[in-house]
Amino acid sequence: MSQFLIKIISQPKLYSCISNPWPWHSLRLSSTLSSSSSSSSRGNSFIVSYLVGTCGFSPERAVYISKRFSFETSDKPDAVISFIKNIGLSQTTTLRVIQSLPQLLVANPKTLQPKIDFFKSKGFSSSDICRIIEGCPSILTRSLQNEIAPSFDCFDAMFQSRHKLIKAATGYSAMLYDFARFTEPNIKLLRDEGVAESHIVRLIQYYPNQLKNSPKKFKEALQEVKEMKFDPLTFQFIVAIHVKTKIGKSTWERKEGIYRKWGWTDADIITAFRRCPWCFASSDNKIEAVMDFLVNRLGYASSSVVKYPLILSMSLKRRIIPRGSIFLVLQSKGLVRKLGLASVFRINEKTFLSAL
């Protein structure tokens, strides 16, 4: 019985990269229980010393990590560090990768190399691969056969442009795993609504993390957007889903309250969101500041923002205040008549300056 318990205790747990900071996927950990408490103490002391001295961990963090895996010599962790550096990462970046995913120290470089070879075979440059590892170290812990390769192949068929896919994957390498669990069901939901394939590809390019939402959450956002009468054939449909899933229900309700405070009706809120979903992505303080400047300083009715909600996503300091202040001065001197928000703020800087 005692041997059975030891065997059970020594088995490493498997964690998801999304839900737990210790994703062990496909890594073989050498965890050893010593019959001697003093021997175990010396082993932990060596690991802590290595983590602090070589990897730059704080003593507290090193002690915490040392309880989760072990190594008796520095051979294996040294080999892993050398492997990561040989990919092309600097010493500083290599240690940052190790610090974000310390279980890599007990990985076998021979199991990591095929993933690097795969990326190279698909056209990723050395700098691309470095960006992938730096941006998402856990990609090294994912199964090549079951996750990375199938995900890449599916996206490759969709993009029909290896260059665009490499750019997207380099910017958000987490898109290359959990495809069947999250990405594939969410893509199916969009296809079932008649969303154009080109718009789905743009979603992956610009908002790839949206496909990591649970299918349940993604479907709820999609249904809400449909109820607001967004057209699935337009990219605005995609943007609305993105904003909806990004801010969540409580944030949405809080922003509704802010707009109501400025006199907007429920119909106004829906109208503004349909015209520019980004008006709900701005921070509470930004919304308040823009509305205050437009209504109380420039004298616009709050309903004018409903007609041109894009202004809420513009820079307050770089565009709204400077441009609004100039028009305020010109108006006070009778040099210009009062113009609509779009006429004042939509035109580019060159056109604006030439019109003065």
From TrEMBL:
In terms of InterPro entries, this protein maps to: MTERF, MTERF_sf
The processes (GO biological process) annotated in the record are:
DNA-templated transcription termination
Q: Return one GO MF term.
A: nucleic acid binding
Q: Name one Pfam family in it.
A: mTERF
Keywords, sorted A to Z: Transcription, Transcription regulation, Transcription termination, Transit peptide
Instruction: Tell me the PANTHER family matching this sequence.
Output: CGI-12 PROTEIN-RELATED, TRANSCRIPTION TERMINATION FACTOR MTERF15, MITOCHONDRIAL-LIKE
- Recorded family membership: Belongs to the mTERF family.
Q: What is this protein called?
A: Uncharacterized protein LOC110279925
Q: Which organism is it from?
A: Arachis duranensis
